[in-house]
Amino acid sequence: SKLKLWGGRFTGKTDPLMQMYNESLSYDKRMYAQDIRGSQAYARATCKAGILTTEERDTIISGLEKVREEWASNTFVIHPEIDEDIHTANERRLGEIIGTHIAGKLHTGRSRNDQVATDMRLWLRDELEEIEGYLIEFLRATVERAEEQIDALLPGYTHVQRAQPIRWSHWLMSHAFMFLSDLERLRELKKRVNKSPLGCGALAGNPFNLDREFLAKELGFDGCIQNSLIGVADRDFVVETLQWSTLMMNHVSRWSEDLIIYSTAEFGFVTLADAYSTGSSLMPQKKNSDSLELLRGKSGRVFGQMAGFLYTVKGLPSSYNKDLQEDKEPLFDCVTTVQNSLQIATGVVATLTIYPEKMKAALTMDMLATDLADYLVRKGVPFRETHHISGACVREAEKRKLSGIDQLGLEVLQSIDERFGEDVLEVFDFERSVELRSSTGGTCKASVIKQIEELTKVLQRA
Ligand code: ARG
């Protein structure tokens, strides 16, 4: 019978465009396995509640197994006029395989409202697990590079103006710590995703004394959602995933931006492996950092999905409303984008060539003006005063058209301030400047090693 699942009270036909507008199967079929798994657990629970005999239960479970095989082998035949979504499609097909008399008992007390929320959470749970794995791989690759490239120094920038020398590994680790926070937030989020809405029914709960705790356990959830109205209405787990992704992709984007700048000929600090670059159709010499630009660009896409869905749920009345069907496309796309982006970023950092000589050549003596001021601080001069004295040295070097403050010579330095001693010449050493930054979080070697150790500890637990 080509009857819609909910066709009982209807006599009029659905408008053809409405049919298309309403369907979600074209994208929610992605959750076919979760839908089947949820239904199999539901059959066990309804059997336990005395709705199904053990025979009926087993018939349903093995029938659903056949439906699963059809999806897996790409032989599931969709009937567009009645298969509205993955839930109706699977139930329709189950009825054809085992007969509608038994198949018709499966949905007792259940609604697509608790069913779809269950499917989504089951699906997302696995995807988040995968994302966590990719994030850890990215962190591992970053830490490896930081260890192996610990000796390279480069200019640190503020306002993209040369500021103070830092270690390249310090730069790497700065991003790693942002992503570490993402990892922590992801683990929090996973807890909230993994709660069972199954058994909430359409909105009011289950009237057949269904053991929801048993059902939750069967499906590997950490407990049940405690209120049936919110069980079917809650899409905070979708919003939160989109928000998490927005912030994480924002970190990806900022990381990419630095590398895009560093890979220009003007900087020349790094080059991307061919595997993550593309060429120009017109200019034969070009090698573009397309991977990084896409990583930066796709963060905007994720941000849009987050904002869009947040608008969708804002102001919805209680319990289920069809607006909620709009959760899937942004979430699916976001998850794919995040998974791909993390893998690309890992590939980029693992294969990146760095040029320590060019990094070093970009260091200029004016970047040690703070160290020159600090020299006098160590002799007891107040910093506000030393700042001016060092500034006068920079001005003097500029006036004399010297390459840097180190070229002024002791005599000139002493003419600017007599407290400059012979040992002032030691200041003009980039390595020294870096090594002086030895407090926690600084860019000296020991501190960066400590950062690496901190992160490695977390990753070992992962
Ligand atoms: N396809 C729907 C969705 O994705 C399933 C739930 C439909 N429930 C309903 N009462 N119309 O949200």
Automatic annotation (TrEMBL):
EC numbers on record: 4.3.2.1
Q: Which GO terms describe its molecular function?
A: argininosuccinate lyase activity
- List each copy of the Argininosuccinate lyase C-terminal domain by range: 367-435
The reactions it catalyses are: 2-(N(omega)-L-arginino)succinate = fumarate + L-arginine
* Gene Ontology biological process: L-arginine biosynthetic process via ornithine
EC class name: lyase
Domain Fumarate lyase N-terminal, by residue range, is 8-304
Pathway where it operates: Amino-acid biosynthesis; L-arginine biosynthesis; L-arginine from L-ornithine and carbamoyl phosphate: step 3/3
InterPro entries per record: Arg_succ_lyase_C, Argininosuccinate_lyase, Fumarase/histidase_N, Fumarate_lyase_CS, Fumarate_lyase_fam, Fumarate_lyase_N, L-Aspartase-like
Q: What GO cellular component entries does it have?
A: cytosol
Pfam families on file: ASL_C2, Lyase_1
Q: Which HAMAP family match?
A: Arg_succ_lyase
Q: Which NCBIfam families match?
A: argH (TIGR00838)
User: According to its UniProt record, which protein family does this protein belong to?
Assistant: Belongs to the lyase 1 family. Argininosuccinate lyase subfamily.
What is the protein named?
argininosuccinate lyase
